[in-house]
Specification:
Number of strands: 0
Number of helices: 11
Order of helices and strands: HHHHHHHHHHH
Largest sheet: none
Helix content: over 70%
Structural class: mainly alpha
Shape: globular
Radius of gyration: 18 Å
């Protein structure tokens, strides 16, 4: 996600907080916040590495902007967006501070912008696979470890599996072809949509459209089967 206005996230957060409250998501506050603590490492890693990947790809393609702005790092401090973080914590999805790029430095603008748009998604998938490997190592060392068990190994395993799921969710969510998500950047470059008469109108209304899709449950219905599809082979490797 590389271009988000500052007012839209606040509206999104408020709407989804109300929606999730009405759906009973916070009916067990103690349990919810305990699970949140276990998910926090995955959230921080997912957002930081996602934005770092955009910065790294753009710099490699000749654009010095992310490096000059201090974004060529995996440090969460460089990528932390309060609204994006709160949305991920309380609403199930979120974002970091969008990485600014200057496409004028690219040799092939459409190709290179496509690469930069894909970079964050690919990174989240790689992180999910890496943490799946870590979880496999934990089970190799302690085959009696159980997800959610009140033991050090069980808690560590839970954190690792949450990190896998969170990164897969970030990857799939960002693939949605709705602005300002990376998926829209991908289809824009693949089909050269900037030349279409409706492009900027659709782009400017992207966030309200995304909010609507979230509120009516369309995003969940798309995300859940795709995340499960990606998670199954990783989980099978973890327990083998």
């Amino acid at each position: 996600m590389r271009n988000i206005s500052r007012q839209a996230p606040l509206l999104l957060l408020l709407l989804l907080l109300v929606f999730n409250f009405l759906q009973g998501r916070f009916s067990d506050p103690a349990g919810y916040f305990f699970q949140l603590l276990l998910q926090l490492p995955g959230i921080v890693v997912g957002l930081s590495f996602h934005e770092f990947a955009h910065a790294w790809a753009s710099v490699r393609l000749g654009d010095p902007t992310p490096r000059m702005q201090g974004r060529l790092t995996i440090s969460p401090r460089a990528h932390f967006d309060p609204f994006g973080f709160l949305c991920l914590v309380f609403c199930g999805f979120g974002w970091g501070v969008p990485v600014e790029i200057n496409p004028n430095y690219y040799k092939n603008r459409r190709r290179d912008e496509l690469i930069v748009s894909c970079a964050g998604i690919v990174m989240n998938i790689l992180v999910a696979v890496l943490f799946g490997f870590f979880a496999h190592i934990v089970l190799t060392i302690d085959s009696t470890a159980v997800f959610g068990e009140a033991s050090l190994t069980g808690i560590l395993l839970e954190i690792l599996l949450y990190t896998v799921i969170i990164n897969l969710t970030l990857a799939v969510f960002n693939l949605l072809p709705v602005p300002p998500l990376d998926g829209f950047g991908i289809v824009t470059e693949l089909f050269d949509l900037r030349n279409k008469s409706w492009y900027w109108t659709f782009y400017n209304y992207g966030m309200p459209i995304l909010i609507l899709l979230l509120l009516v449950g369309v995003v969940d219905r798309i995300l859940q089967p795709l995340v499960v599809f990606l998670y199954i082979p990783i989980y099978q490797y973890i327990i083998m």
